[in-house]
Structure formats: structure tokens, C-alpha cells
Amino acid sequence: MPGIKKWQYTKGLHEIGNGIYAYLQPDGGWGWSNAGLITGDDSNTLVDTLYDLQLTHEMYKTMQQQVTSHLSIGNIINTHSDGDHTNGNQLFPEATIIASKSTAEEMRHAVPPQVMADMLKKAPPQAPIRKRLGAFDFNGISQRFPTETFDREKNIVVGEKQVRLLEVGPAHTLGDTLAYLPKEKVIFTGDIVFAEAHPVVWAGPISNWITACNTILALDIDVVVPGHGPITDLSAVEKLKNYFLYIFDEASKRYQAGMSALDAAYEINYDMFASWKNSERMIPNVMAVYRDLSTTPEPENVHTIFAWMDQWEQRHQEG
Ligand SMILES: [Zn+2]
């Protein structure tokens, strides 16, 4: 099996081998997700769609150009509920949309794309939300929800290929699912793996995410396609696991000492992950540890978390 160096981190479709492809969107920051294509007769399967209709359309056009001009999509696997992995579903009205039951449920309660579009429209020119999401167009998206759901595990067949869907959430979100091709030794992890960036814990508990890392590490895998970032291998999963062990440990000490989560996020040294992007995610991640440890976790407001992350970015830019 060729080394992972074979795949450059460039925008577009990259063949992994045996009719399996990854579609990458550098730099992998907020909203810039990866997707996958597993080809097989008339049941070609997408692993996730992208954040808006234009990006998803562009991806599909690239696949038609590089794979086959009459590429029909039989199935879409949604690895989790986030819009950057599901908003393009509507472009494939005939496809069966497969997701874990928890993901399907979570999608129904997520902030609708039109609300995001209105929020962006109303935001002043300098607002951080514009910097983070201004490149995406949330207008005209009507969500297509999963049409086939499962609990914990499901096997599907794509042409000759076996695909094992393993639900490992709640971790990043409530119903995170891995798509694993055992014969080809390839795994699409959705946002259970962020390569070369801080992950972001929305749901937790972190112990579940560590278990998810162990699940992946126990499988026979050559190639890992992360939800964001370059194509990688199991070394990225090992690093991610170490990140969580470290953050959990450091945040726990500060929790026991009575420090606030926000102060702890600023105090914890993350030098060993200094090359990773999106350090602002230390804030939700430390908050997740506090939530895991508390017997009476306080409800969190996602707008507050983003405001804190914006402040973090500002402070780190200043100095
Ligand atoms: Zn994502």
C-alpha cells in the first residue's frame, strides 16, 4: 500500500484506490469539510455532502468529470448532523440517505440553514461570523433528512465493496458514524478525526471520543479520510487520542481547583499541538471536560461559546 504522502492536500477529488475517492477542501477550517465517493455499479455512495449547494454541485461535477459522466448516486451516508456534511443532500432527491438514528434526530433540531443565512445577512461587515462563514451561501437550502436509520452498526454493500457503518457517538455530535471498508483498509471518519487541527467537542463525553479512537486504532486501516484536513493514517488517530487524554487531565486539575473553564482554556499549555489549526477550540473542549465532570452541568449557549472563541482569536492575533 502506498504511503499517505501520495495524496496532496489540494482541493478536489483524490483517488484512494479501487474506486474509492476523497474530496478535499483545504484548509479544513470551519465549514471546509471533506467528503467521499465509493463507486459500485448503480449504488455509488457519497460519504457526506458539503456546506452549501454550490460547493456540493461543484463536487458532483468534478466527480462526473473524473469518474464517469453518468454518475448516479444511490446512497448518501451522513457521518453526522452538522450542516457542512449534510446541507448538500437536497441535490440528490433520489438517493437513500443513511445515518444513525441519533444523527437523524439531531438534524431535525439543528439551526436551519435559512436562519444561518438570515444571521449572516444581518451581521455587520466586521462581525466574526462573516469571517468564519461568509464564504458559504445558506440561501435556498431545504434540508433532506435521512431516509434510512440504524442503531450502532449497519453493513451496506456498494457494488462489490463491503462498507461497515459504526456509530461511535455521542462525541463530536450525538450520533457520529464511521464508514469503514475492511477489504480496502480505508476509513471515512467524519468529524471524529480532524487532521492537523484541534477537534471540537460539541456533544461529548470525551471518554466516548477516546473510545472511538481506540475502536479505529483496533481496525486494520491504511488510509484515514478525516472530516477536515489532509488524508492521513492511524498516526493522526493516535495523536488525537493523546490530545484528549492530555486536555482531560489538565482541565480536570483546574476543575478540582475551582478555576473557571474559560480561565483553564487560556492557561493550559498546548505547545505540543502548536502546529494544529483552530486553537480557539480549546474553549469548547475544556468546557466539555467540565461538563463531563460536573454532576449539575450548566446549559451552554452556542452563541456565547462562539463569542469566546472570537475573543480568543483576537487576543492571539494581537499578541
Ligand atoms: Zn465538519
Automatic annotation (TrEMBL):
Name of one Pfam family that matches: Lactamase_B
Domain Metallo-beta-lactamase residue range list: 32-228
Organism taxonomic ancestry: Bacteria, Bacillati, Chloroflexota, Ktedonobacteria, Ktedonobacterales
Protein name: Metallo-beta-lactamase domain-containing protein
Organism: Dictyobacter alpinus
Coiled coil regions in record: none
Domain of life: Bacteria
Entries under InterPro entries matching the protein: Metallo-B-lactamas, NDM-1-like, RibonucZ/Hydroxyglut_hydro
Entries under PANTHER family matching the protein: ACYL-COENZYME A THIOESTERASE MBLAC2, METALLO-BETA-LACTAMASE DOMAIN-CONTAINING
